[in-house]
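hey m, so remember when u said the tokens were messed up on ur end? i reran from scratch. heres the input so u can diff it against urs
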Amino acid sequence: MRPAAVLVGGDLTGKETIFVSEVGRDRYVYVNGDARETAVSDRELKELRRLWGNKGFYSAIVPDELRKNKDAPERLKIKRQLIRTRLTQWLRYAESAFAPAGIRLLLVPGNDDPLDVDVDISSVGWVENVDGGQTLVEEHPVAGLGYSNETPWHCPRELSEAEITVRLNKLISGMSVDDVSRLVLVSHVPPFGSGLDIAPEISGKKKDNEKVEIDQEDAGLSIVPGGQSEVGSKAVRAFIENHHPMLVVSGHCHDSPGFQRLGTTLCINPGSTYGSGVLRTAIVLLKDNAVLGYQSLNW
């Protein structure tokens, strides 16, 4: 049995860009995770760039002056091009795998994704970005929310809980109760207090209260060892409790995979282990306004 559609819940782009400079014959320098300069050979750098890429990171070889200047606008331009290239490659790959089998790809961006990533998604016309909109997959309406509630990172796609409420209500405007009972909501942020919204506790204060444009690692924040917080959206939870959609598929909290029932609504967060080369997914079987079965699956 082939799936009718594949749903992707956001955070399509990488969180870190590593800038490398050539400082001599067969000698390259970059800043490692401990904020120390590290020198490597050409062969070592090739292997590092492969490993960085497998983790979803980007890397670029730039002049040494640019590598050292974190505030240079050229760095943002370079990352934007790296995002565009890799995202487009992945979407084209998905098209080559799914389209011949008649499988649709429906997605929303996530809070980490730059606002102009929508242009890259739309450039692959086969892909359907359902953020703020709605489509029909067989008899099931599918709607999307590609934002999160506010976080300490001040990422590009964050909204207040009140704004999320407005957007969610707009998604179902004009729908009958029966239609909403068959609704599949692709919400990047999971519902608050669902067990699918646990994330590491963050300490510190974001520099200048500005949005993160290049790397979260430069944001002036740190993770509290062993600390955890519920970071889901209270507006998404209220929407579920008030309107009872059939299925809510989320992302956002990479360390909180699982399935939870909120009333009659099944909520899913597949989680993510992109750093280990494992793709976490979930298979859901729907019929009419009922979930017949579901199962997690790792590739």
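this time it looks ok to me. The first helix runs from residue 42 to 54. if urs says something different then somethings off w ur setup not the seq
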